[in-house]
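Hi R.,

Here's the chain you asked about this morning:
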Amino acid sequence: MEENNKLIAEFMGLSIDIFKALTIDKGVQADYMEWNWLMPVVEKIEYIESTTHGNQFQVIIREEEVGIYDKHTQTHIVYIPADGESKLTNTHKAVVEFIKEYNKNN
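And the predicted structure, written out as tokens:
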């Protein structure tokens, strides 16, 4: 989990030291397995712009799946079926997988 939080924090432009400092300042465990921490990541993904088409990605969170799609090619970048997990858990999985793919290609 720590490694995934570090990956997400870096994607959000935070060093892990700043992320940990936020944890101490807020007096709670800063954890991207909480909606309050995870939704800004979802929003950042949705506001990534392509060089020619504006916002490129769409995150869809449903009971049966979480998917991150390329809006222009209409293809899955990440697809996580529910498999009995919560929307929060699956959204976290999708975000982590998206960031790994994004980092490979950018």
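DSSP finds four helices and five strands in the chain.

Let me know if you need anything else.
M.
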